[in-house]
Amino acid sequence: MNLTRRELLQYFSLTAAAGLSGPGCIGWTREEAIPVDSWHKSVCRFCGSGCETRVGLRGGKVVKVEGLQSGWNQGRLCIKGLLNREILYVSDRAQYPMVRKNGQLVRTSWEEALDAAAAGFREAIAQGGPDAVAFYGSGQLFTQESYTANKLFKGGIGTNNVDGNPRLCMASAAFGYKSVFGADEPSGCYDDIEHATLFFVIGANMAECHPVVWERVRDRIRTAPETRVIVVDPRRTPTARDATQHLQLRPGTDVALLNAMAHELLNTNLVDPEFIENFVTFRKGTADSPPLTLEDLRKFLADYAPEKVADLCGLSSAEIREAARLFGISQAAMSFWTMGLNQQTHGVAANRMVMALHLLTGQIGRPGTGPFSMTGQPNAGGGVRDTGTLAHALPAGRLVTKEHDRHDMEKLWGLPEGRISPNPGLPAVQLFEAMREGKVRAALVMATNPARSLPNADRYRPGMEKAFLVVSDSIFPTDTARLADVFLPAAMWSEKEGVFSQSERRYHLVEKLVDPPGEARSDLEILVALGERLGHGELLKARTPEAVWDEWRKVAAGTSYDFTGITYARLKELPGLTWPCPTEQHPGTCRRYVPGEDPLAKKEGRIDFYARPDGRAIVYLSEQGPFRENLSSDYPMILTTGRRLEHWHTATITGRVPELKGIPMDYLELHPGDAAVLGVKEGDWVQVTSARGSVRLRAKPSMRVRPGVVFALMHSMEHLVNAATSDSVDPISAQPEYKMAAVRVERVKEGT
Ligand code: SF4
Predict the structure, then answer these.
(1) Is beta strand 709-713 parallel, antiparallel or unpaired with respect to 667-670?
(2) Which of 167, 306, 555, 597 has CA atoms 20 to 30 A from the CA of 399?
(3) Mean pLDDT value across residues 272-290
(4) For a substitution probing ligand 1, which of 14, 210, 375 has the most ligand atoms within 8 Å of its CB?
(5) Which one of the listed residues 170, 353, 374, 446 is annotated catalytic?
(6) How distant is the alpha carbon of residue 466 from its chain centre?
C-alpha cells in the first residue's frame, strides 16, 4: 500500500467525520508518492455518490487515484475511493474463461466458453421458450453494457426476464418517483446542499455509505449554524451523531411516522396552499385511480395523529411533532434516503410519503429543497433505471405493459411490431424462485453475487446450481461464480470504457486506461459475442462504447430523460453532465421541473411536472400496512442490516484488499440490556435465527441499537447474514425487506 500523506490525512479526516476510529486505520503505512507519467479523469467505481477522480498511470499500470479537485467532490474521496487502484491488483482477479467439466470449472478458450454459453441458452430456449432464460445484471455495469443486455434479451431473445441487483436496493425509490412525478430519479442536485436549511435523512447512514456527500452536508452545517438535521434511523449511526434530532424509530414503521408528520403539518398550517392548489393532486393506490382532495387526505390522516402512532413507531408524540415543525418552518428542506426506506415491504409507500412532505410544503423546485434518494452502486440509476434494464421496464421511462412504448422501442431497434413481449418479466426474487422451480433454465449473471446478496439466500442457491448459469465477473471465485457452468472473466473500471451515472443524474465517462489482466474482456464484448452466437448479431450493430452511447442518446431523445446534448466529445472534456440536457450547448440541469432551469419545463410559474399528463405531482394516501414479520416468543427480536464505511456489498472486492482484511464485519450489534438478558458478552458467538435460517456472529453490545433490535453488516464473507433475512417483497416494487426480520438470538459456544 502506498498512500501519500495527503491521502492518509484525507482518509483519517473522513473516518473521523464518520465517527469511526481504530479499526479503520489498521495496516496503513505512509509511503512517498510514486511518480506518474500521465493523469486522466475518471470516477470512483464504488457507491452512487459518484466521486470524480484523477488517475495516475505509469508503465501501463494505475499507480495513483485521487479526488478530482474540479469535480463536484472537490478532491475528496473516502477510503473506498482511495482504494480504486488497489482493487485492480488484488490476487483473485479473474483472468481466464472457464467451463464446468466433470463437476469442475476448468480453464478454456474464449471460443469454447462462449460456444458453451450459447449452446446452454439455445437448449433452454428450445425446451422452455424465451422465458426459460434470463439476464441478471448490476448497477456496476456501464450504461452501454446494461443497455445492450436489455436490447439483446427483450428485443432479440424475446424475454422480459431482465432484472438485476438494483431491484434489491432501489426499486422502491424508482417506483416512488415514477408514480409521484411520472418520471424516475431525483429532481435536485448536490449543489442544493449549500442552500438547504434542513436535512431530513431517513433510512440512510450517509456518513458511512455516502461519506463524501455527507462531508458536503457537514460543510453546510459548519458554515450555516442555523442548519438543522433530522435523522430517522433505528440505529444511532455516525450520521445520527450530526443530527439536531435523532428519531430512533422501530424498524418498518416509517410510513406511520411520515403520515404523522403530514398530519401535523396540515394541523399546524405549515403547508403551502398555493403550491397544493396549483401543482398537486391526490390519489390512493395508483396514478390512474379517481382523484381525491386535500380534505380526503386530512380525513385519512386522522388515524395517524402523532399520539396515535407514537407507540407503534417507538417514539414520543412530542418528537414527531418537533420533526414536523422543523420540516414545516425550514426555509429549504432537503431529504435524503436510501436502503433503510427502500428495503421494506412498505418501501414504495414510504418513498411516496417522503415526496408528499415536500409537495405539501412546496419544498421542491427551489435551491436547497427536494426529495433526493441516494443510490448504492456507481451506475444503478443511469445504467439500470434509465435504460430500463428491469423486468417491467423499457429504456427512458417506457414500460413493457404499454403498447405505445413497446412499439416505440421496436421501431427504434428495427424490430417487427409485436417482438417485445407485453408481459413483465420476473423481478429478482421471483426470478431466482423460478430458477428453483426449473422454469428459468439458463441465466447470464453479470457483475453481481446473488448467491450471497439475495435475501433468504440459501433458498435460492440450489436453483442457481440446477440452472445453466453463465457468470461474468472481475473477481474469481465469488460464491455465485462457484455455481457457474461457464465463467467469463470481466475487465474492471479503467480496463474498459463506458459511462456511469450517479445519484444527481450526472453522466461521467470512464475511459479505458490500462489492459485488463490475463484474457479478461469488457462485459460489452461478452454480450455482443454471446448475442452473435444466439443469432442476434444484426440487432447488436452498435458494438463500441461510443456507438452504443450514441444509440442510447437517440432512444432517450424526446422523452423526459432527454440527454441528446451529452455527447461523447463533451463527456471526454468535462467531469460530467447532468440531464436533462437536450442540446450540445446546454450546460446540464440541476433542478428538474423548474421553468427557466429545466429545458423540458414548458409552462411558466413555479414548477411544471411535465412527465405527468396533467402537470401535477401526486400525493398518495398511503397506509402503514401490516408487518410481514410478526414478533413472537420464538422470534422476539428484529434483525436489521446495513454497511460500514470500509467495506462494500458482499465484500468480494473490498474483502480482498489486504489493507481492509483486518476490519471486522462478522459482528452483531445488540443493546447492552438485551445482551445482559441473553448472558452475552462482547466477542461471544451468538446464533441469529429467523424462520428461514441462521447465522453465527460475534456479539457486540452497543448503545447504537434500540432494545429489541439487532444489527448485522451485509458484508460478512465467512458468515451468511442473508441466510436469516426476509425475502418478502414490496407488492408494487418487488423489492425485498432486508431491513426487518423477526429473529431470536442465542449464545453459542465456539465450535458447537
Ligand atoms: S463516497 Fe462513494 S463514490 Fe465517493 S469515494 Fe467513497 S465510495 Fe467512492
Answers:
(1) antiparallel
(2) 597
(3) 98
(4) 210
(5) 170
(6) 28
